[in-house]
Structures are given as C-alpha cells and as structure tokens.
Amino acid sequence: MTAREPRVPGNDYGVLDPPPLGGWEPSLTVSVVVPARGGQEKLDLVLAALSAQSYPARLTEVIVVDDGSAPPLRLPEIAPERTRLVRSAPGGWGIAWALESGTALAEGRVIHRLDADVVPYREHLEAHLRWHHLAGYLVVTGRLRFAAAEGPPPAPGEVRTSVAEGRAGALFTPDPGPGHAWIDELVAAHRGLRDAPPALLHRVHVGATVSLPAELLRAAGGYDPSLALGEDTDLGYRLTQAGAVFVPEGEALAWHLGTTTAMRRAAEVRRHNEPYIADRVPCRRRLRTDPGRQWLVPYVDVVVDARGARFEDVRASVDGALASTLSDVAVTVAGPWSSLGEGRRAPLDDPLLDLRLVRAQYAHDGRVSFTEAPAPTSAPAPFRLVCPAGWVPGADALRLLVEQAEREGAGLLLLALDEDDSGVVAARLERTAAVARALLVARDGESVDDVVADLYGAAWLDGESWTFRPARLAYPEQASDRNREAARWRAEAEARRKEAERARGQVAALKAELRQARAAADRGRRDAERWREKAEQRRLEAVAARRALERTLLRRARRRVRRLRKDS
C-alpha cells in the first residue's frame, strides 16, 4: 500500500480520477495469472491477444498454470515475451488451487486473473491498471462479451493483429443470449456500484477478468483451494471484509469464448455451491435459515475482555450473547490465557481463579474461542460487537443492531451503557469492512473511529433502549441458561402467532357476518323497492277507483236531477 492512501467513502470510487486510456505513464508491474485445463486452441487466442496489449510489455508477466491437462498444455509461438507455463503445485487440483499456485510465483504488484477462454481487447490491461495507480485497495472487474460458437475460430495471428489495431470487437459474433446482463443491471441500479451496500459487492466478483493488488490478495487470505467451484464469490466476500473498493471498469472489454458453465447449468451450479457459500458468506441470509446451525464464518463475533473481570461478569456477557435470537453468533474471550499454567496451585486462592473458571466454563463450547488479544478486525465475520464484561445484550439486541447498521450503512454503532471515573462505558458494533478500510487509510496518530465515521458514518445509541442490562439485573434469572431467554422469546412469538391466528379467525367471522348483513340489507332494499312499486300501483289503482266512483256518483246525481225536473 502507498504511504498516504486516498480515502474512498463506502464504495464511492467516484472520488478518484482515472487517467484517459493512452494518456498516462504506467509504472506498476502486473502478473496475469491464467488457470487452464485443456483447451489449447482457446489458450492460444488468449495469449495472442495478451501479446498485443497497450499496457507496457516490460511491466507485464503472464503465468499460465496447467491444472493437470492431458495432453499437457504448451506455450504457442504467439505469446507475450514474459510468459511462463507452470504446472499446479503438487497436492491439489481445481481452479482455486491453480490460482494459488500461480499467484505464489507472481512477481507483479498487481495480480490480474484471466480465464483461459477470455480474449481481451487492446486496452483491457491498461483499463484495469489505471485504477491501481490511484489506490492500493481497489478490486477492478472487466466487462465480458460472449462469443457465439459459430464457425471456425480466427487464427492466433489474426487475433493478435486485430487486437493490436483496435479491431477486437469484430473478431467474433456476439451470442444472442443475455450474457452477464444481471451484472450490468446490478451495477446500473447502484450508480456503477458507487452506492452499493457492502453485503452486495462480492456478487460482481465473478472471476474471468479481475485485478487487485497482490498485497490486498494476501491480506484477504488468497483463494480457498478447498473450493472446486465458487472460489471467486468466496474471495470477493473476504476482499470486502479486508476493506476493498470494487470498481466495474466498462472499458476493460474482453470476449468470452462461448458461455460459462454457470450460464449453461445454472440450477446445478447453484445446488452445488450453496452449502459452501452458506458456510463462508454470512450476508447470504437466505442460505442460513436453520437457527440451530453453527457456521464456519459467524455473522457477528462478540468480543468480551476477561482481563481483570470477575468470572460471573464474563459469564453473564458470554451467555447473553450466545442466547441471541441471531443464531450465527460466535464469542471471542480475550485474556492472558498463556499465563494459566497447569502446575500445583491452591485452587481456592489462585490469583488467576476467575480466568481459569472462564476457560473451564467454555473450553468445550464450539462457539467460544480464546485469544490473548483481539485482532484489529473480526474478518471474515462482517460484524463485531465489543461488549464490556458484566453487560448482557438482550435476546434480540444483536439482530436489531445489525439491521440498524445495514439500513444506515453505518460503520460503527456505539451504545452508552454507564459512566464511571474513566468516562463513558460503551459497547460497540463494528462493521468489519469499515474498520479494515479505516486501518488502510488512517494517518499516524489519527483515531480509527474518526476515520470510520468519516467514511461510513457512526452513531451513539442508548444501551438501555437497546436492551443491554447489567449482569445483576439480567443474570442468572434470565441468562443463566444460555437458551432460556431465546426459548422464552420463541414461546412468546408462538403465543403471538396463535393470537394472530385467533384474530384472523375473528376477522374472518366478522367479514362473514358483514357479508350476511350486507346481503340482508340488499334483500331489504329490494323488498322496500318492491313494496314501493306495489304501493305506487295501489295508489294509482285507488286514484282510478276514486275517479270511477266520482264519475258514477256524478251520473247518479244527474239522473236524479233529471227525474226531479220531470216530476215537477
């Protein structure tokens, strides 16, 4: 890393200003590592394209790693000057093993992974490397076009000439399929990933063409050779936790010769990868649906410092964390464990008795580990809660705090618990990626917390409101059985579920009653209308009858008058 790294807030690499292609002077060396198994014809085209790159050949080396090809691969006539063909190191196999074998031999300050079926355009390496000259913690991904499998491929000489003359785009016929449209949509939805949340970034790390500083790759732990597939997703996640910024470089174009296995057999690849990814990538929450599981990488690492603390206080804090409704939690207890010798001692008067009791309490709990001093971050866990001994987080506290941090994108949440002569006693939820980034860019004497707040944001919260309680109030009544409080909350949730079911039943009954009432009202309206019609008919009949009667009476009266006149 450079002495004074520029500061990128979150993933907003827009604060950096890359030079235009062809308008700058490179200085960084790059090692292009190409893992390959078979496919000599495609490899020949890849190396031909690499031999015509705009990035200086004096700064470029290419390492082709043969992962057990039969017959073995060979270097073609057209290849970059500094190209080596090596076999994978003995003792393993697969693409991750080949990449580890190649990067172990790499001399460049930047490692560029390029698959053996990816033919880069002329400015491909240059587009990647111009970013790495700006900051030492960038991961740059290229953009693939997928070539249709139509007709014979071009000859290596034709590929070299076309790439050198800037005509790589005409080398192949594009495949009509969607390709990596999902990546383009993801990138576009987050302003080129500039406002993408940390939990999303590893999804665009799909191998094929990706570059990063060699030092950053080592800091993240390199490729995991135990993974036959999904090694790029796993590494992308760990790079996030190491503080990396992901840059999708649209001008780093390349042809992918044919479609990928993940595109052709998507459902099978997902089925194969999900157990491995679930174990290693905690932010894939939908893959961790079993609350009883213990995972390789926890979602939250809770750190409790046992130095100078009473056994009962440490136990209360640890048990409270393990009783969390957030199931994928691990606890790290810090203390001078190496000082606990096994020689003769007075058991009850042992000056290290509290430490010894803590170790005895959790020695065989797989969720609890012991450390002399916590590491700077809890990587690869995405979050760390530092909890003072004697304070107990409520059953739902961790889950709610993580949700708060994710909603706000915060790098640090500080919970005020108490105040003593030394100041405010606080618990703290740290985002691993934020702390790692701050450690990369903080200057001498600068507070890491201040840098985290500047780049990701930080907030003070009231510990009591977030259900942190002192041990005397929370333990042992509710926390002595590490599962009791979680069970109580589960029982309460079940009771609420039943109440909700009863309420839904009552609502359904009321709706049925309402429907009946409405039907009765409708019938009443229809009856009223019918009787109104009948009443009107009767009225009209009565009027007609009255008029007929009046006419009859009038006729009778007239006849009587005529008779009277006649008689007189």
The N- and C-terminal alpha carbons lie at a distance of 144 Å
Helicity, as a percent range: 40-55%
Number of DSSP-assigned strands: 17
> How much β-strand is present in the residues?
15-25%
Biggest β-sheet description: 8 strands, mixed
Low-confidence stretches: 478-482
Coiled coil: 486-552
Organism: Planomonospora alba
Pfam family, one: Glycos_transf_2
Protein name: Glycosyltransferase 2-like domain-containing protein
Q: What's the quick description here?
A:
With 568 residues, this protein is an alpha/beta fold.
Overall description:
- The protein is an alpha/beta fold and 568 residues long.
- Helices cover 40% and strands 18% of the residues.
- It contains 17 helices and 17 strands.
- It has helices at 40-50, 95-105, 124-132, 156-164, 181-189, 198-201, 214-219, 231-241, 261-264, 266-280, 311-322, 353-362, 397-408, 432-441, 448-455, 471-474, 484-567, and strands at 30-36, 60-66, 83-87, 110-114, 118-120, 138-147, 209-213, 245-257, 300-305, 329-334, 368-371, 383-386, 391-393, 412-420, 423-431, 458-462, 468-470.
- An eight-stranded mixed beta sheet has the order 3-2-1-4-7-6-8-5.
- Helix 1 packs parallel to helix 4 and helix 14 crosses helix 15 (448-455).
- The longest helix is centred in the C-terminal third of the chain and has 84 residues, at 484-567.
